[in-house]
Amino acid sequence: MAAPLPGPAPAPAPAPTVTDVAPAVLALRAAFDRVPGYLDTATSGLPARASLEAMRDSLDAWSQGRIDMAFYDESVTRARTAFARVVGVPPSWVAIGGSASPLVGIVAAGVRDGGRVVVVDGDFTSVVFPFLVHEDRGVVVEHVPLERLAESVRPGVDVVAFSLVQSRDGRVADVEAITAAAERVGALTLCDATQAAGWLPFDAGRFDVTVVAAYKWLAAPRGTAFLVARPEAVERMRPLHACWYAGEKIWGSVYGPHMRLADDARRFDSSPSWLCWAGAAPALEALASVDLGQVHAHDVGLADAFCDAVGRPRAGSAIVSLPDDDEGTLRTRLLDAGLRVAGRGGGVRLAFHHGNGTDDVARAAAAVTG
Questions:
Q1: Quick one: 246 exposed, middle or buried, by C-beta within 10 A (0-12, 13-18, 19+)?
Q2: Residue 20 pLDDT grade (very low, low, confident, very high; cuts 50, 70, 90)
Q3: pTM score, whole prediction
Q4: Cis bond leading into 257, ω under 30°?
Q5: Domains (ranges, CATH) in the chain?
């Protein structure tokens, strides 16, 4: 279950050995097929076996003309409920979508003409672009370093928008300082937890609005995303993508002329991509059923063990970034060693999750130092 997130994560214990892998990690490994050397969950999570089975069954049903809408509705409900458990909020606070940026766009559209927004310099653009497109309305977007984000939330700031974990290098935002600063000046907090949900326990209720693309650490198919909105934030946002699926009675909202949207966060729902949500539900239920604190300790333990092995400071994150040259020499060495990693922001990004072990740490460290 999710727990309140403090500031930056403390230094974890050394990487777990084969004999002391936590029960939560073992449970997840039993639900997923391991791919040795896969250190790229920050780009795309590997699927649960039950997700693949559900999607294959759905493809067969589609091809045979027996699509079952009740099954797909149930899949959305299961996914919404499981995600709510992962981030520690009621399901009524959760809306579904297809990707993060349109959900951020709902918040951006509510910024007043001439309003001010503070974002992290170099943050993932899905958090930033939806605000920048409102510059013609006089909306001012200020880009500041992550370490100065809290101090930059001054009177007159309408929204502070940030990633809980930076996509480029895995740095974790200081939630206590940021939310305290926002409360002092009445600014709305928008947190993108795409690179956090699934390995970093946190309480989405700490923020006015949280968005998560679910295809990374949550292991859902791409095309699934969530928006979490506190009840008071729901009243401040317009459901720009209003559709039949956002209706108070979904199947009673397929024809006009009258509109009656759901009263809670479901009013922000987009019409779901059925097969994607069929695959999302089992993966999210697997993660919701385990102690994410144990997953966090495992993932960060491996990442910090890798940092120790290559002589770099521990990051306290499941994501590690190493500098690389313009030709991507280091990334090529890692790929040649049979490791899957990403090139991001002029560096190499490695992401450690429940499927990884000390063997992945050793192989990656040897490729870097050899």
A1: buried
A2: confident
A3: 0.93
A4: yes
A5: 18-47+291-369 (3.90.1150.10), 55-288 (3.40.640.10)
